[in-house]
Amino acid sequence: EASRIEKLLKAIELGADIVDVELRTTNLKPTVELIKKRTKCMLSYHHLDKTPSLHDMKGIVRRQLEAG
């Protein structure tokens, strides 16, 4: 996990206009806050086995909004 966040921060140092942060990232909100001080942040959710139900999608969007 720390390695993934380090890579995102390195991408920002190299001039990334936006970075993609997985919604299931540990310490999501502080990570998003740190990134948003320096560049744009996109929150994503990947579930490759099936499409989430509408109820699950609403929960995903709610968590994205809460994270910033």
Could you explain how this protein is built, in words?
By secondary structure, the protein is an alpha+beta fold. The chain has one domain (2-67). 51% of the residues lie in helices and 15% in strands. It is built from 3 helices and 2 strands; from the N terminus they run αβαβα. The protein has helices spanning 2-13, 28-36, 54-67; strands spanning 18-22, 40-44. Helix 2 links the parallel strand 1 and strand 2. The longest helix has 14 residues, at 54-67. The protein is elongated and about 35 Å long. The two termini are 19 Å apart. The mean pLDDT is 92. This is 3-dehydroquinate dehydratase. It comes from marine sediment metagenome. GO terms for molecular function: 3-dehydroquinate dehydratase activity.
List keywords for this structure.
single chain; 68 residues; alpha+beta; two-stranded parallel sheet; 2 strands
Cα radius of gyration in angstroms? 13 Å
Shape: elongated
Largest sheet: 2 strands, parallel
H/E series, N to C? Answer: HEHEH
Tell me the domain tally. 1
Please give the number of β-strands: 2
Question: How many separate helices?
Answer: 3
Strand order in the sheet with the most strands:
1-2
Q: Percent helix among the residues? A: 40-55%
Q: Kindly state the mean pLDDT as a whole number?
A: 92
Structural class: alpha+beta
How much β-strand is present in the residues? 5-15%
Low-confidence stretches at least 5 residues in length (pLDDT < 50)?
A: none
